[in-house]
Amino acid sequence: MQWYALLVLAVAAERVAELVVARRNAAWTLSRAGVEHGRGHYPVMVALHTGLLVCCLLEPVLADRPFLPALGLPVLALVVLAQGLRWWCVTTLGRYWNTRVIVVPGARLVGAGPYRFLRHPNYVAVVVEVAALPLVHSAWLTATVFTVANAVLLTVRVRCENTALARAEPA
């Protein structure tokens, strides 16, 4: 369980790094007349991701979940791949990447990196991580509950992002 706790803490540290990058990028985009959309769902998203990390640590202990290598190792690989995809998205979008939905009017959509293949590749990383991280240590209840909650949240988030991007795209 100790190595799993370290993994969850590493993911939490990665989230803090994301927030540092996001804060810097938000200042940059807002200084260029960026407009924020979807403020109402942002606290829910923060709570969901914080709750996920907490429950990843609690369920294996409280429910005495074992580490099952046949499950844990493949989903650990998925967690690592999801992190790689996430940071590919971050580096591809550069200063336009953010945890908030901030759009600079007139800015062109990015069509490089993973955005050549998918409109929202970052959310693929999020979906994989939310499902896989708890399963590394057999926390199937956490994986199920947070996957469903994340699906509901992403329905709102993707709709918000698509609307904001459509309004900002040049005619």
TrEMBL record:
Subcellular location: Membrane
Gene Ontology biological process: methylation
GO molecular function term, any single one: methyltransferase activity
Topological type in the membrane: Multi-pass membrane protein
Domain of life assignment: Bacteria
Gene3D superfamilies: 1.20.120.1630
Transmembrane segments: 70-88, 123-149
Keyword Ribonucleoprotein: no
Keyword Nucleus found: no
Signal peptide residues on this chain, from the entry's feature table: none
Alphabetical keyword list: Membrane, Methyltransferase, Transferase, Transmembrane, Transmembrane helix
Entry protein name: Isoprenylcysteine carboxyl methyltransferase family protein
Organism: Streptomyces viridiviolaceus
